[in-house]
Amino acid sequence: MVDFGGNKRSFTESIDEKMASSRSGAMIASYARKMRKTTKPAEDKLFSFFLEKKPSVLLRELSSFLTDSVDLPSLLHETCDVLKNVTKASGVTLYMVDTTANEIYLARKGADRSKTRWKIEERTIIAAFVANKKEYVMSDDIFQDERFPEGIPRKGTFQSIVTSISGDAIKSVLCVPVVTPDGDCIAIIELYKQTNGGRFSKDDLKITIVVTGWMGAAIHQNQQRLALKKQQELNDYLLDLTRNYFSDTVVMEKMISDVVKFAKLTLGAERGSFFIIDKENDELVADLFDEGLDENDISLYKKNTKIRFGKERGIAGLVARTGVTVNIKDAYNDPRFNKEIDQKTGFITKSILCMPIMGVEGILGVVQVVNKKNGGYFTQTDENLFKTFSVYCALALHYTKVNQEMNKTLHVSNISLKLLRLQLKPCVHDLENFALNPETKIPPDFHQFSWYINLNSFAYMPQFCLYMILQVVHSSEINVKNMMQFILSTRKLYRNNPYHNFEHAFNTKALIISALCHDLDHGGFTNNFLQLISDDLSELYEESFLENHHYRVTMTILNDCEIYSNLSENTFKLISKEIKEAILATDLALYFKFRAKLAQICNDNLFDWGNATHRSLVKSIMMTSCDLSGQCKPFHVAKRITDNLYREFYHQGDMEKQMGLHPLSIMDRDKTHTIPEDQVQFLNIVVIPCVDILRVVLPNTEDLYNEAV
């Protein structure tokens, strides 16, 4: 081995000293790890000439490399040719380093660079030794150097002594690593001279070290720049992905095309595919989205045939079944790769990176990119980028699937609503009979609070409802025929409950439309019980589950019957708002809040009928009073109403017992002895305070209070 001062020194140390004295020092200073001040030695003419007259091809290609990603082996081949000419070498060989496999391989111009490989270790070829030590070697006689029993490779064979084309043997070898400032060996440049070509000089070594050092620094700079650029591109893309796919409904095909397009551009792949996973009979089934035949068409298309990973071989199936990323450098030498696909399509697969898209409940899809451009393979950095990218893909894919399911549910809901509207319509015979007999005899005590419909008059409840409505609203303000349909539809939608039925609705006469509909489609259970069993209504609304449902059904009937067809749109909106507030007010949980506010206002003598808030509180108390007015009827009527209510309560209590719960005493049929005490408490805590505050603002309701006490 030949060195500058008789002592063996590392490549990096040589770079530090030699580059500090060159005109390229300013450029290299930011990349070299150590810079020591030394006396500037005299530069020989050849060295100065090279530094001042850097070959234009080197600068042009390097500038291109620093501007964007190019084929690194091609760039290094240009550098090799420059060094060959400057050092007057007989030939030059370029080796690229595969750090993942701990190997080097011949990088021939325009040829497959992955065929001939050597492990990075000592006592093989000189290039493997240099890659292992990361130090230059200048051997005057490769014949006699025992460190390299296999010498240098030539024309694909191992020879200690190789004969060149002219017949002269190769003797002198200068082998230098291309090392980054971080100490990563990227490539090996091996210059050699034939026997008649003489030896490499110290100037040759200086020039080679300067150029390779400069290349190492430039490559490192570009790697850092590209890493930042890729990270920025990834960040920008992920932000766009979040903004586009989480702010609006996106077609699945477009989302997948964008995902694969970005993956290909970021990772430098030739082709990409996406598999949407769906479990079918415990078997993994996927819809395949693949590229078309037109090279200019980058969109992905859904194939008609489903891929069954339980039967299909291939990398995507393996990833789908295991959920583990697969990175294949040489597909045809990997037993997991199914060559039949290439044989059918004519496409040649070289390298594959296939990654699962994982969701909360398992695998959502598989994305696969094929053939790293420029003849390489997908690196660990590519995997890391892909992994980050796949997390956001999972979110976008999950969101898109949820949107699709939501849209399906919406369509099903619309279909069900159309079907419901057909069922909402009353019987034609009932409607005809109502139209022929819209009036009936009104009982003389009908307008008294103590009046309650008797069993013989149930059939005339629609006529009584129409009479009360027309007492409040003039016939010119509504469509009477549609009102008849509305009343009959309302009666039809009340369930056959013991208490919450059409009879109860009819008895609640204030704010007539709201009162008539305030318990529409009541299931006979309390809000607390619906929340306990996670009923759909408790999931749909945040509070007042039943009351919100009653209002929703009310508006469905109103929109279908169009009883307010003569009113303007704004007026109808105001009426709808009044109906909603009135129906929600029947929730006893809200009643206590409303009563407390109204009581404070009345106690302070601040009540004002001109105040909209005060009027709203009164209407809420009126709705609750009418809802509870059954307790203000004569005893025999109140008892019948209460008995019906207890029948509902006991049914709920029985269900709670089956669930292993302990129901309240009013809902436990085994505690009928507590009924008197429970009723007294209910009257004192709920009913009497309600009608008491009502008589303060509406003195003509005094009879309700008197009957309650």
From TrEMBL:
Keyword Glycosyltransferase: no
Record: active site: H500
Molecular function in Gene Ontology: 3',5'-cyclic-nucleotide phosphodiesterase activity; metal ion binding
Domain of life of the source: Eukaryota
Transmembrane region(s): none
Gene3D superfamilies: 3'5'-cyclic nucleotide phosphodiesterase, catalytic domain, 3.30.450.40
Residues holding Zn(2+) 2: D519
Family membership noted in the UniProt record: Belongs to the cyclic nucleotide phosphodiesterase family.
Protein name as annotated: Phosphodiesterase
